[in-house]
Write a structure and sequence with these properties.
Blueprint: E1 3-7, E2 10-13, E3 18-25, E4 33-39, E5 46-52, E6 58-60, E7 68-73, E8 78-83, E9 92-100, E10 106-110, E11 114-119
Parallel strand pairs: 2-11
Antiparallel strand pairs: 1-3, 3-8, 4-5, 4-9, 5-6, 7-8, 9-10, 9-11
């Protein structure tokens, strides 16, 4: 059974940082990419960061480029999201995800999410 379990969400003030972690287990094949999605109330789900598991291109949404950094520790089956300079518009449920396909666009697996709330 594939499991992606997120941790590290919470409530912060604007300008502060958070680091999300995700442990990946049970995968019998290697997805192309690992990364993060988010969804705010009333908004569509947004892929914010994805990186190939074997190294190479990393994709960021324009809304987070320059502030968020995705990284992986393949030995520990972990994926991280360092979020700096958080703003109220970053408030959302954040989901760890395994992707497939070109440009890491297809969603293979999704975690249950961790809430991030940013107040002004």
């Amino acid at each position: 059974q594939v499991r992606l379990v997120e941790s590290g969400g919470g409530s912060v003030q604007a300008g502060e940082s958070l680091r999300l972690s995700c442990v990946v287990s049970g995968m019998t094949h290697a997805s192309n990419c690992l990364g993060w999605l988010r969804q705010a109330p009333g908004k569509e789900r947004e892929r914010i960061a994805a990186a190939y598991t074997g190294g190479g291109a990393i994709y960021y949404a324009d809304s987070v480029k320059g502030r968020f950094t995705v990284s992986q520790d393949n030995a520990k089956n972990m994926v991280y999201l360092q979020m700096n300079s958080l703003q109220p518009e970053d408030t959302a449920m954040y989901y760890c995800a395994a992707f497939y396909g070109g440009a890491c666009l297809g969603i293979d697996y999704l975690g249950r999410g961790t809430q991030v709330t940013v107040s002004s």
